[in-house]
Amino acid sequence: MVIEEVSAIQEDLEIERTCRESAEALASKLNRQNRSLKRKSMLMLSHLSPDTIAQIQLDDDEEEEEGKDMDSVSNGCLSPHCQTSISELQCKLELSCEEKHQAVTGLEAVKEKLRETREELLKEKHDNTVLIAETVRLKKLLQKYNRVSQFALEEYKVLQDTLGLEQNLRTEAENFGRAMLVEQKKLKRQSQILMQNSSPSQALQEALSQISTLTQDLEAQRLQHQHQIKQMEDRLRSCDTQRELTALRRKLELVEEERREYSDKCTKTEVEVKDLRFTVEELQKKLQAATNPPPAPAPPPPPPPPPPPPPPPPALASNPLSSLLSLIRKKKDLSSDIPLLVQDSAKTAEPEVNVRQQAVDEMMQRIKKGVQLRPVSSRSASRPRKQRLPSNSAIQELKGIMDHFNRSSPQPKAAPPSTNSDDELQKILLRRRGALES
């Protein structure tokens, strides 16, 4: 709105200026026409006498006409209507300037608010990303909990089935015991009746025959009962082994998922390590270009010292961090023999800055090349390969150390070999068999 008013005022001023210029051009044109008419009249004055020509004052007339024209122009410009219009236009111009200034200040305030809102929007976006990451993490945790709960529910169902089976077996055994007790009482009553009705010899013979038959029946029933118990134990063993196998499979699935997650983390850390190495190389180049003076002619290096004896093979249960640190120290001791001599010989010729620069260069070269692990000497080649440290490069060692120290909670162990699982299953079955027999 203010800009439109300012543009309208500027258009009015342009119109006034064009009108004034056209009026000035018309006045100058009329002045030229008057002069031409005067020259023509002077040509006509040649026919007059010199006295009459002297009496005519053309210059004065021209000056008077020019003065009159200027007075008319000034009078036209100093009219009250023009003055009021000019004052109104000036007031409008001042108001438009003030409104323009206010609009500029308002625009700056709006820009500041827009910047603040953008910052708040970026902050909210960052908070949203953090919340999304947290929700994803919680979803993964919830999925793990759901899987574990499903596994626990399945195991509970298996245990409930085994409990029902054992309860059924117990009820069958109790019913069988009651039936045997009833038969025993019945046989006792029959034997008493027979003993009362028959003579003692016949009763004794019949009792002996009944005892033999009963012992045979009891032995057959005992064998049958033992056979049933063995069948039930075999069923229980199969159920226990199946349940343990399912539990081991679930644990293996969980370990595989965690291994995938850690492999993804490992790839990310490898990419970050590569980026950091690249930045270190660039910084080293800049440092060398900025602070490295032209190298002085170094003296010839002395002959290398004899190699140290090979270290003993490390144990299998050693800590990867301690083994890596010991290898770095040995590498440092081996590679620092010659550069130390070079530094001692160069101290007399170069200042302390070169020594420090040489140490920095050596350190950066080691960072670039990485820690190369030496193989075990030929003397220990005949020993079994299990005693060697299972590592191929410094990247794998660093990966193992990072996996070892980045664990925020104790991770489940990997699936044991088949021999250990068989031994554990046999131990569990033996314990359960002893509990059932007792």
UniProtKB/TrEMBL annotation:
Gene Ontology CC annotation, any one: cytoplasm
Which terms under GO biological process does the entry name? neuron projection morphogenesis; positive regulation of neuron migration
Q: Where is the composition biased (Pro residues)?
A: 292-315
Per the record, the major location class is: other
Q: Where is this region: Disordered?
A: 285-320, 368-425
**Which one of the record's GO molecular function terms can you name?**
actin binding
Per UniProt, subcellular location reads as: Cell projection, Axon; Cell projection, Filopodium; Cell projection, Growth cone; Cell projection, Lamellipodium
Superkingdom to which the source organism belongs: Eukaryota
The entry's keywords? Cell projection, Coiled coil, Cytoplasm, Cytoskeleton, Developmental protein
> Which segments constitute the WH2 domain?
359-376
The UniProt family comment states: Belongs to the shootin family.
What name appears for this protein in its UniProt entry? Shootin-1
Originating species: Solea senegalensis
